[in-house]
Amino acid sequence: MIVEQGLSKYNVASRNAARWPAQGRRVVLVPGQVEDDASIRFGCAGIRSNRELLEAARSACPEAFIVYKPHPDVLSGRRAGAVSAKDLARWADHVETELSVVSCIEASDEVHTLTSLTGFDALLRGKHVVTYGMPFYAGWGLTQDCGPEGPAHRRRLRRLHLDELVAGALLRYPLYWDSRFRGYASCRGIIHRMVSLREKLEQTGELERLRLGWIFRLGRRLRLLVDSWRML
Questions:
Q1: Cα(81)–Cα(76) distance, rounded to whole angstroms?
Q2: In sequence order, what are the residues at sequence separation of 6 or more whose Cβ sits closer than 8 angstroms to the Cβ of residue 148?
Q3: How many CB atoms within 10 Å of residue 58?
Q4: Burial of 17 from C-beta contacts in 10 A (0-12 / 13-18 / 19+)
Q5: What is the pLDDT along the chain (232 residues), one digit of tens a residue?
Q6: Which end of the chain is more exposed for a tag (fewer CB within 10 A), N or C?
Q7: How deeply is 217 buried, as exposed, middle or buried, from its count of CB atoms within 10 A (0-12, 13-18, 19+)?
């Protein structure tokens, strides 16, 4: 359902198909991250920056068409992780700022990442994933892990099928809360809620306004916080 509906962590960007001038070259997607995020500080033992990740991807795939997708919060200037124009020109063939991450994954052959959830989204869509950190989906035999071996990798001795990883990450471990009905819900129910909300926002034009800038997303987050406080 997640794949069929084109869902990911972020669901406001354009879902149009990518039209990159790769000209038959293998396409490698490199998703940027917030560099002072906890997943980078505690989940990376070697490479820790977007610039280093881009350099590593280019070194591993010198002939590939590399697409760099900056993190939305970094792109807005609110978080750390910007890559200089000089470095982008040196290691990336294209910088994607408009299309959704799902559109980027679908147009790519593989993904190189530190710990980004984009790697998990790519696994769901049958793409080859190379990791340089210790995301939850690495170390199970589903990804090519290039980072220094960390404690998380040493604990993960089992080999998992993709369905087992999905079950553990989305069905067995988490609890889901439906803010509208104020009760616990199934993963399937939350997916339906996300799709329904997205369709409603598209019909009213609010989804387009959310794409225009961080101030609209900030306002939505504040409304969610207020609604959560009222439920206490």
A1: 11
A2: 45, 46
A3: 19
A4: exposed
A5: 999 999 998 887 778 999 999 999 999 999 999 999 999 999 998 899 999 999 999 999 999 999 999 998 888 787 899 999 999 999 999 999 989 999 999 999 999 999 999 999 999 999 999 999 999 999 999 999 998 888 888 899 999 999 999 999 999 999 999 888 889 999 999 999 999 988 888 888 877 766 655 555 555 556 655 665 665 4
A6: C
A7: middle
In the DSSP assignment, the letter for residue 138 is S
> Per DSSP, what are the bridge partners of residue 67?
29, 94
Query: Global pTM?
Result: 0.87
Residues in the chain: 232
